[in-house]
Amino acid sequence: MRPLTEDETKTMFEKLSKYIGENIKLLVDRPDGTYCFRLHNDRVYYVSEKILKLATNISRDKLVSVGTCFGKFTKTQKFRLHITALDFLAPYAKFKVWVKPGAEQSFLYGNHVMKSGLGRITENTAQYQGVVVYSMADVPLGFGVAAKTTQECRRVDPMSIVVFHQADIGEFIRSEDTLT
Amino acid sequence: MLALDKNPPSIREFRENKKDEFLRSLARDNAQLLLNEIWKLPTERVDEVIVAKLPEPTTRLPREKPPPKPRPPTKWEEFAKLKGIQKKKKTNLMWDDVHKEWKRRWGYKRAKDDTKEWLLEVPETADPNEDQFAKRNKAKKERVAKNELNRLRNIARAQKIKVPGIGLAPTGQQSKSELEKAVHVAKLSTASVGKFQDRLPKEKAPRNTGKKRKFQPLIGDFSTEKQKQLDILKIMDGKKPRLDINKAVNKQMREEDMESDSKKKALPAVSSRAKTRAILHLWAGGALRKARSSGLLAGTQRLRSQRGGEEGLFLALGPGASLPLVRDPAHGSPSLLHRILSKPRRTCQCQGATNGAFQPD
């Protein structure tokens, strides 16, 4: 476990800012305690200082996970967000998409969101903007990337993809053994 | 004691005669031969028993590994074989006339040691200022180096590796990594060790330069760490253009859409004027009759606000800027009757689009 280097911090923040914009500041600078990002096994964990200090008692090869896993760095040093980060993305999300109850299951099985399943979408969503996907009852289901702008969404046919799937809470079951 | 009969038993006899008899006779013959051999050994009498003294037991084991292959001949050995040159054994020691004793032919303390001379004759053709001792040392070093090179070439030839030439000849086609390395070396080869060398726009920093990565401590100063991250965020924010062109274009498009929508809405309203008028009568009690066009506008606005109330539930949950996607029916007519009529049809469409498999007939 180690702190992120400057480059790593930058790549991670750039990825995070696609979903929560400048709200990252609220993650870094929290009034309720000191929280920090730590790298362990190529994964980035968001940990409170207290838990971090406790975790130092555990040797590196025995430590599976600490705090909340935000995602991982690929071998080419790109950053991939994991579904575990949803708890921190959802409250600060700038662009949201609500899916209809009928399309919820399809999304939770890892499929893209079609126009037919789209309930509502934040106004002025740009193309390829990172969005957090909610059910109509405002339960965060996952996140993805807007395939079309809000403007285009109104015109396209019902079977065209509106949001590209990136992660959904179904992964907690589907990829239980790789999520830490 | 072990006796081995290496002769193969004749299979024909084994099959023809009685098998037991044949084997018994064979065993008897062999036992006789063994006893004959024992009687050939020296014997002695111990307590009236004749005892033969057996030889020391030996067991010859086969070797574990195959014998090593002969070393491939060197270039000289090949040449010598071709020319029929044979090695002549020379004595190790030879008589040294100067010291009047036997000395080694070569090596340390050898006879006729030319390195021990305190004086050297300068040849007539040579430069008089040249250091003859240094010249001899250099010649010796070169001979050693040449020998070493030949040795390596012999090894390379034996292992069928491409025999390296002398010096660093440029290869015909240098690979990307080789070129990168060459560029890096060339850049560092300035008086200031490449400190003031410009970089190309997309040039990457050379990897594996021997510098180790250094990380911050795991539990260090949390406040400086936070400050650093905030600084990074500030820089990232600063990089974003103040005017997001995409967003601006989208906004413009949306405004145009709204305009065209409102125009569309206004047009059919004129055609269904009679219905609208009836509703307006109900609502305003004929008070708005005098200004028909303006009253119509007010009616539409009221209708819109009603619709807003219906969806205000979602608006309250979501952020302020969220747009209900469920659009008005294509007619865009503000008439209430039309709206009521078209509502069940709309829900039907939705069902069909979302979950066609479970649609009831």
Automatic annotation (TrEMBL), chain A:
Keyword terms of this UniProt record: Nucleus, Ribosome biogenesis, RNA-binding
GO CC entries: nucleolus
InterPro entries in UniProt: NIP7_N, Nip7_N_euk, PUA, PUA-like_sf, PUA_sf, Ribosomal_synth_fac_NIP7, UPF0113_PUA
Broad class of the protein's primary localization: nucleus
The keyword Chaperone appears for this protein: no
Domain called PUA: residue spans: 95-170
Subcellular location field: Nucleus, Nucleolus
Family membership: Belongs to the NIP7 family.
Function recorded in the entry: Required for proper 34S pre-rRNA processing and 60S ribosome subunit assembly.
Protein name stated in the entry: 60S ribosome subunit biogenesis protein NIP7 homolog
TrEMBL record, chain B:
UniProt subcellular location: Nucleus
Biological processes per GO annotation: endonucleolytic cleavage in ITS1 to separate SSU-rRNA from 5.8S rRNA and LSU-rRNA from tricistronic rRNA transcript (SSU-rRNA, 5.8S rRNA, LSU-rRNA); ribosomal large subunit biogenesis
InterPro entries, sorted: Ribosom_reg
Main location per the UniProt record: nucleus
Entry superkingdom: Eukaryota
Keywords, alphabetical: Nucleus, Ribosome biogenesis
Chain segments carrying region Disordered: 55-75
Pfam families (UniProt xref): RRS1
A single Gene Ontology CC term: preribosome, large subunit precursor
Membership in a protein family: Belongs to the RRS1 family.
Function summary: Involved in ribosomal large subunit assembly.
Alphabetical list of PANTHER family matching this protein: RIBOSOME BIOGENESIS REGULATORY PROTEIN, RIBOSOME BIOGENESIS REGULATORY PROTEIN HOMOLOG
Protein name: Ribosome biogenesis regulatory protein
Organism name: Conger conger
